Amino acid sequence: MLKIFVSTTMMIPLIMISPMKWLWSNTVVAGFSIAIVSLALLNHPTETPMKVNQWMIVDQISSPLLVLTCWLLPLMILASQKHIKTNPATRQRTYILMLVFLQMALIIAFSASELMLFYIAFETTLIPTLVIITRWGNQMERLNAGHYFLFYTLAGSFPLLAALLLMNASTGSLSILLMEMGATTLSPIDELLWLACLVAFLVKMPLYGVHLWLPKAHVEAPIAGSMVLAAILLKLGGYGIIRVSFLLISSMKEMSYPFIILALWGAVMTGLICMRQTDLKALIAYSSVSHMGLVVAATLIQTPWGLMGATLLMISHGLTSSALFCLANLNYERTHSRTLIMMRGAQAVLPILAVWWLLANLSNMALPPTTNLWGELTIMVSLFNWSKWTIMMTGAIMLITAMYTLHMLQTTQRGPTPLHLKQALPPHTREHYLMLVHILPIILLMLKPELISGGT
Hints:
The chain is mainly α. It is 73% helix and 1% strand. It has a domain at 252-456. The longest helix is centred in the last third of the chain and has 32 residues, at 304-335. Residues 112-397 form the NADH:quinone oxidoreductase/Mrp antiporter transmembrane domain.
């Protein structure tokens, strides 16, 4: 674990001293080297968490998220190359440095053994993400999107900080290991503390109703910002809910019922919103809210199957949504528009790119035997055991997901080809490689899904 963190830290001098002609190549090679080394974290000989040092632990829930974090850094650099290559040298180095700082904060967040250290890393991710959105965003509304992102996150995080300080004062420890063993629990009078802890993570997921910052941030962010928001930063909320849910004692479980119902209802509503979107990036962003609604419901019911399905869906959605945003960016670079109808008929002009579109969309709609399907089915079974009425909502969610995914595929790839698309440049080798390293893990995880199932 430490060698991954130290290697990521050593990318900072590499970025500073690399000649400009080798800057992108050096950082991509270093990022992939760290990602390959991080694959060793998926090997867990025992079910107990592995203590790296006083401040860091790795277990079967955090290790897949750590690997996903390391895997996406070189992909974000690859995807951003064309967009950032025209910037001055200092800005190119700053952009890559922001991505490295973001990975360092995420590694600390996913491996923290104390909730206070997790909170500090959780908040630290805000700074580089905000800089990426507001400085390198594509549209004039990027400052407004950055304000939404900043104030929604901070408003949700202040109650979490107050709750953690009060919990530390009353119990004397914020150790995640002690909480999982049941040595540190809240008393029934501390229901508000649990609620305060939950609010920050529900905003980050985001839960329907506090989700308005996400579409704005996705639409205005550059490609790397959209990738890291959808693939990793949303998972911080799910990871935090899993950690804090161990504080929920049996007498307080009824408190989570409204959030479970709201999460499922929100998943249906955002799925319906996706069906009427004309902006491709907004469609993919709202689909993330829909998928994360299932994750919120699965984690709050606190069953082994629920946690397994939530972990499976988080990792699968991370790879799939990142691939979809990359494809949306490839289309944007050729059409200079995010409007769906401006991209129709792309299959006739860019047939190989249409293959990547097909594979990514089939994974997004949970086609068998993808891990998206295993995650959604596991969540459906666990929710059905909790309440039989949930089968209607989860069934509607899967049906609506298939409908808007097929709508997105058909609108972008089929139909008459507009004139402006007939002169589009074919995909470069870099772009094919970028899509390959997105789709290949999705295919390989079908063969061994227990690597990312949380060990339950």
